């Protein structure tokens, strides 16, 4: 899918100081992405603190992003759970007219076998009316979706079109790229190794850092896709410290400090997450203020 090549961002859910969803800030963040070269938007991923949102709040976030986007960029919707039947039920009941694909995380907490993971996504593929992006993030799910399982799913189900690979393992990513069907996309889910993954044959990224620094990170991705290696690595190393910082005390606490520095939203997160401490907030503020020089 050409619309999923390049830089996607996992949008935050901005909150006001009273912890309610900040609709105006969310609209401003969507426009900030579009104005600075992002290729597509991911709605209700982990970075959106989706686990803390009520059903009504999720619908508010979706409708706000769709309205702000106005059809300008492709939209991907996070639809995942460790309850297969729950995901299938949502896929059969939701209207997906505004979305080009779903992003579905490998089941967390249950720790299924590889066969269990395969059958979970088989059920999703058979129920989904739009293409499916697998999401492998073992640091959060406590189980790694192996390349052999991903390749098996990609081969068996034509509507499974991509994987967001966030194991942080470049060797595993290369095995995926080596063995995948020709049109299947391997998308980085790890900001720090996005560029080497692209240079190895990956298709881009679904990023956290890119929503705070969309112009620089998106330019790096496109330079990498065009094999302009030296220019791409200059931007990679400029952003590397910021990538470390935004994850230092949890996601999205770090990236929300960036948005606060940019004047786009508050830094409010919901428990069990807490705000970045004063030291990290200052370092992120200083980096953000200096980033315009590149």
**What is the spatial order of strands in the main beta sheet?**
1-2-3-4-5-6-7-8
* Low-pLDDT ranges: none
User: What is the straight-line distance between the termini?
Assistant: 31 Å
Residue share in β-strands:
5-15%
Give the overall pLDDT as a whole number. 97
| Biggest sheet descriptor | 8 strands, parallel, barrel
N-to-C order of helices and strands: EHEHEHEHEHHEHEHEHHHHH
The structure class reads alpha/beta
**Radius of gyration over C-alpha positions, nearest whole angstrom:** 18 Å
How many helical stretches?
A: 13
- Taken from the alpha-carbon principal axes, the silhouette is globular
What helical percentage do the residues reach? 40-55%
- Total strand count, please? 8
Summarize the structure.
This protein is of the alpha/beta class and 294 residues long.
How would you portray this structure in words?
This protein is of the alpha/beta class and 294 residues long. It is built from 13 helices and 8 strands. Helix 11 packs across helix 12 and helix 12 packs across helix 13. The longest helix is centred in the last third of the chain and has 20 residues. The protein is globular, with a radius of gyration of 18 Å.
């Amino acid at each position: 899918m050409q619309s999923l090549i390049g830089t996607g961002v996992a949008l935050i859910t901005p909150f006001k100081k009273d912890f309610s969803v900040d609709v105006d800030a969310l609209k401003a963040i969507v426009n900030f992405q579009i104005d600075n070269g992002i290729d597509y938007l991911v709605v209700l991923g982990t970075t959106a603190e989706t686990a803390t949102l009520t059903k009504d709040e999720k619908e508010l976030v979706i409708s706000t992003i769709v309205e702000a986007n106005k059809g300008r960029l492709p939209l991907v919707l996070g639809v995942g759970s460790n309850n297969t039947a729950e995901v299938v039920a949502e896929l059969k009941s939701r209207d997906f007219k505004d979305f080009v694909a779903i992003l579905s995380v490998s089941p967390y907490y249950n720790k299924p076998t590889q066969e269990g993971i395969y059958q979970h996504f088989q059920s999703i593929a058979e129920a989904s009316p739009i293409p499916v992006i697998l999401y492998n993030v073992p640091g959060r799910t406590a189980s790694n979706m192996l390349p052999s399982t991903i390749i098996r799913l990609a081969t068996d189900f034509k509507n499974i079109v991509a994987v967001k690979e966030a194991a942080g393992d470049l060797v595993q990513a290369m095995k995926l790229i080596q063995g995948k069907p020709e049109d299947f996309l391997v998308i980085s889910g790890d900001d720090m190794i996005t560029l080497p993954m692209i240079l190895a044959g990956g298709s881009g990224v679904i990023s956290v850092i890119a929503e705070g620094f969309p112009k620089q990170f998106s330019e790096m991705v496109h330079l990498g896709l065009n094999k302009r290696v030296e220019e791409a690595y200059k931007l990679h190393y400029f952003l590397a410290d910021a990538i470390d910082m935004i994850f230092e005390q949890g996601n999205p606490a770090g990236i929300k400090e960036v948005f606060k520095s940019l004047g786009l939203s508050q830094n409010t997160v919901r428990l069990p997450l807490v705000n970045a401490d004063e030291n990290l907030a200052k370092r992120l503020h200083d980096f953000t203020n200096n980033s315009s020089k590149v």
